[in-house]
Design goal:
- This protein is an alpha/beta fold.
- Helix content is 32%, strand content 15%.
- It is built from 15 helices and 16 strands.
- Strands 7-6-5-4-8-1-9-10-2-11 form a ten-stranded mixed beta sheet, sandwiched between helices.
- Helix 7 runs parallel beside helix 13 and helix 8 runs parallel beside helix 11.
- The chain is globular.
- The two termini are 36 Å apart.
- The structure holds calcium ion.
- The site of calcium ion (CA) has 5 residues, from loops.
Length: 512
């Protein structure tokens, strides 16, 4: 439902008229019939986050390449956001923003090389102080040990897919099997073994589907007989964009290596896993070498290999989300638990010929975000307001009844989730990416996105501006920054960009 239409609809219900505090008429009447006891109880929160899972690979977002029935279940029983964005599209920085509710220049973690300062204020610490039991299980990636958690059990660094080591409260232990299953086993065990009656906040962070996209052996046959559709921009030559897009190093054609493409086996397999791996990839690799494709045919082959492995990793995530949702139903936790599913950022699935993330362009900027909470969220609702990873900490504090500290920079999504977006909700978002020079060679840039336009400034190494009209050019193929008819739009967007940099206290990067 489009924003205007939905608002008009809600006005006819009288929902938008009185919106200060408490639950909306919509949530009381249409969603749940919440009891007085439920209204007093603070919900549990399970925050599931994957690594590099693009919205284009979820069927609730209209995927053309795969089906995700269990993720779709969260969407159909809750809300999915079509315009949730990341403020700095790379792994560790996004996680630090989510923990702190602050932009990278303030939480200090501007790129993957920085160690997170765990002494600072975070959402989990505030929830813990407010009486929540807090835990993180899975990928952490912030170098310092987790703080603010009653229980933590994390992958070291990026972690590995097969037979991973986990660090449980400082103790390293190796676990046989596949990482997505193992992390879910730990989550289920933690939920089952909990004692006491505190509400809980659980961060459940998968490694999958991060590069090098290594599937569970049981999924190696999935998609093998299919030819997956290619994105329309697979052979984009970046002619309509600037130097930053032309000078990156993240193409399927040139950047992918033999490990990415499974032309050599991954590290750390047991003999049994290696035998399964060889049985699957051996004949495929032999056929590839005999066919010896070249040029565009070779890119097409790489795309198919890449996507099938990526989607196999997601199939495992989807299966395991199903296990968790089933447990919440069986245990009676489902009704009083907010379940969130998102990825730390988006990803290129062959779009513009790329993999990886980093750029402020749509595919990496957009985060999938699904939220289910039967007591307050209308099933199957869709929202296109601008939401940010910057809002998550504030949202969870809101559910816990804890006011967000004034120095947090996002805003609670709870009223948006209740179907009553505040009238003064943001109409633009600010982005700033820093990791350069570095792997993939994406130049530093900041920018502003509205519902209609995106203005980007690549200010480091080069000094180039790009403007895209997302209404007429959703794939961002034509930089129209210098076209005279957009001069007024440029002027307004620069003023907005400047305003946002001031609002968020960002003095890093070049002045506008
Ligand atoms: Ca990531």
């Amino acid at each position: 439902m489009k924003r205007q239409t939905r608002r008009e609809f809600l006005r006819t219900l009288g929902v938008l008229a009185g919106s200060a505090g408490g639950l909306s008429i919509l949530s009381h009447n249409a969603c749940a019939g919440q009891t007085a006891a439920e209204a007093k109880a603070r919900p549990n929160i399970i925050f599931i986050m994957t690594d590099d899972h693009a919205a284009q690979a979820m069927s609730c977002y209209g995927s053309k390449v795969n089906k995700t029935p269990n993720l779709d279940r969260i969407a159909s029983e809750g809300m999915h956001f079509t315009n949730c964005f990341c403020t700095n599209s790379i792994c560790a920085p996004s996680r630090a923003v989510i923990l702190t509710g602050k932009y990278s220049h303030l939480n200090g973690l501007i790129d993957n090389n920085v160690r997170f300062d765990g002494s600072q204020q975070t959402g989990p610490k505030l929830l813990q102080q407010a009486g929540y039991e807090t835990a993180i299980i899975g990928k952490w990636h912030l170098q310092s040990d987790p703080t603010g958690f009653d229980y933590w059990n994390i992958l070291p660094g990026q972690g590995v897919y097969y037979n991973p080591v986990l660090i449980e409260m400082g103790q390293r232990k190796k676990h046989p099997g596949y990482v997505t299953d193992i992390l879910t086993d730990h989550v289920l065990a933690w939920l089952k073994e909990r004692k006491g009656d505190k509400p809980f906040y659980l961060m459940f962070h998968h490694k999958a589907p991060h590069r090098e996209w290594e599937p569970d052996p049981k999924h190696l046959a999935l998609y093998e007989d299919q030819e997956l559709p290619e994105p329309a921009t697979l052979f984009d030559d970046q002619a309509g964009r600037g130097r930053a897009a032309k000078e990156q190093d993240m193409t399927i054609a040139k950047t992918m290596n033999d490990k990415d493409l499974k032309l050599v086996p991954p590290d750390g397999l047991t003999p049994e896993q290696k035998a399964e791996w060889d049985a699957a990839y051996g004949p495929r690799n032999k056929a590839f070498k005999e066919a010896n494709p070249q040029g565009k045919d070779l890119v097409r082959w790489k795309y198919q290999r890449y996507m099938k492995d990526y989607l196999r990793c997601i199939a495992s995530v989807d299966d395991n989300v199903g296990r968790l949702l089933d447990y919440l139903d069986e245990s009676g936790l489902a009704r009083n638990t907010v379940v969130v599913y998102c990825s730390d950022q988006g990803f290129y699935l062959g779009d513009h010929g790329w993999f990886d993330k980093r750029f402020m362009y749509e595919e990496s900027l957009r985060m999938p975000l699904l939220v289910r909470y039967p007591q307050e969220i209308r099933p199957g609702s869709v929202n296109d307001d601008i939401a940010l990873n910057l809002d998550f900490a504030e949202t969870f504090l809101d559910y816990a009844g804890v006011p967000a500290p004034a120095d947090m920079q996002g805003r609670s999504l709870r009223p948006v989730l209740q179907g009553r977006t505040p009238q003064d909700w943001r109409t633009s978002m600010y982005y700033h990416y820093y990791e350069y020079p570095a792997v993939h060679s994406v130049k530093r840039h900041y920018g502003v996105r509205t519902q209609r336009y995106k203005l980007i400034h690549f200010y480091h190494d080069i000094d180039e501006w790009e403007l895209y009209d997302l209404k007429t050019d959703p794939d961002e193929m034509h930089n129209i920054y210098s076209e005279p008819q957009y001069a007024d739009a440029v002027k307004e967007l620069k003023a907005e960009l400047s305003r946002l940099r001031t609002q968020y206290h960002d003095t890093t990067g070049a002045p506008i």
